Amino acid sequence: MNIKVGGIHYEVFEKEIIENDPNEYGVCVYADNHIEIKSGLSNERKRQTLIHELLHAVFFEAGYEDHDEKMVDQLSSVLNQVLKENDLAKYFD
């Protein structure tokens, strides 16, 4: 899957182990424009992780290189809920 963020295409793929850490769920690699999501997670956890890593990509492409991890966690949880529980696509068709 590819997702465009700020004009940059990020490839999203699953990996068994992220950054040699079995406890890590995902990572956004800016230099290679890709996002890694841990395989084997539930679909809900994968979506939450993808949104979290996309927020890192959004902040980076907007010029923010230092990201407050707690803030990204909190925003990704709320954004996940908003996207999941509201059919926003219908407003833009």
Q: With helices defined by DSSP (H or I, 4 residues minimum), what is the helix count?
A: 2
Strand content: 15-25%
Largest sheet: 4 strands, mixed
Content-based structural category = alpha+beta
Spatial shape: globular
Instruction: Give the proportion of residues in helices.
Output: 25-40%
Low-confidence stretches: none
Gyration radius (Cα, Å) is 13 Å
Return the string of H and E elements: EEEEHH
Strand order within the widest sheet?
1-2-4-3
Total DSSP E strands: 4
Kindly, what is the distance between the CA atoms of the first and last residues, rounded to a whole number of angstroms?
22 Å
Mean pLDDT: 93
Can you describe this structure?
The mean pLDDT is 93. Helix 1 crosses helix 2. The longest helix has 19 residues. With 93 residues, the protein is an alpha+beta fold. Strand 3 and strand 4 form a beta hairpin. The chain has a four-stranded mixed beta sheet, covered by helices on one side.
